[in-house]
Sequence to fold (261 residues):
Amino acid sequence: MNDIDLRTALHDWAGESSDGQPPVAELISRGARRRRRRNLAGVGAAAVAVLAAGALAASGLLAAPGDTKSTAAPPDPRLELAAATTSTSQQTFRFVVDSELTVPVHDIQARKGSCSGVIDPAAQTGYVKLGKLNEHWAVAGKRYLRVGTHHYTLGPGDVNAFIGCPVGRASDPGFVTADPASLLRDLSKLASVRKVAGGEVSTYAFTGSGFQGTVTVSGGKVQSLTSTVDSPAQGDTPAYHRKITMTLSGYGEPVEIRSPW
Fold:
């Protein structure tokens, strides 16, 4: 029994008893009973508080400090794809580009093309082979070309455009040189990006200025890109359909290319 209990008991005894010796045993008993009642009341209040907190937590009204899962905005797919594109284009990689061109009015039906190569954007060095007769080299920005048995030294120039793959023939409507650097750069000019699948390999669907397609990303790097263009007839240029698929690999591997002659 503490001092407060004892004082309360003495006060009660003074109001109820006649003069004489205080009944010590009875006073102690009264104080003990009061303390037990107070302790039981405190325990009951604590239990009610615990039950109330549990009910709030179950209803979702009470959240743990720092728990922002319910309010955090989802990642922006445009930013995710831009980060992967930047990471890919800043290091060496190998590529394969497959293309297809259709120009109905010229009786060109799914004319196919393919090329493969490697590029080091930072060192302005790369190599691409187009079929059996055409090869391009770039060594520290200096360009070399083989067409059949003819060899040409072109000197300094735009290595990114030079290490590319033609889609169709130069005279065809819709002809373009699909170089990996430009294809990656075009991903920064997209009108919309939508993430359609996540996980170890993420897939994004996109639309740009006159083109659309999909990109797969793995390990923070662009793994493949498919881009299609359906261009209507415009003036003297007939309608055409163009599809380009690029597959990348060998990220960051050393590129050792020497001048061919």
Remarks:
- The helical segments are 3-16, 24-59, 77-89, 159-162, 180-186.
- Residues 77-121+156-249 form one domain.
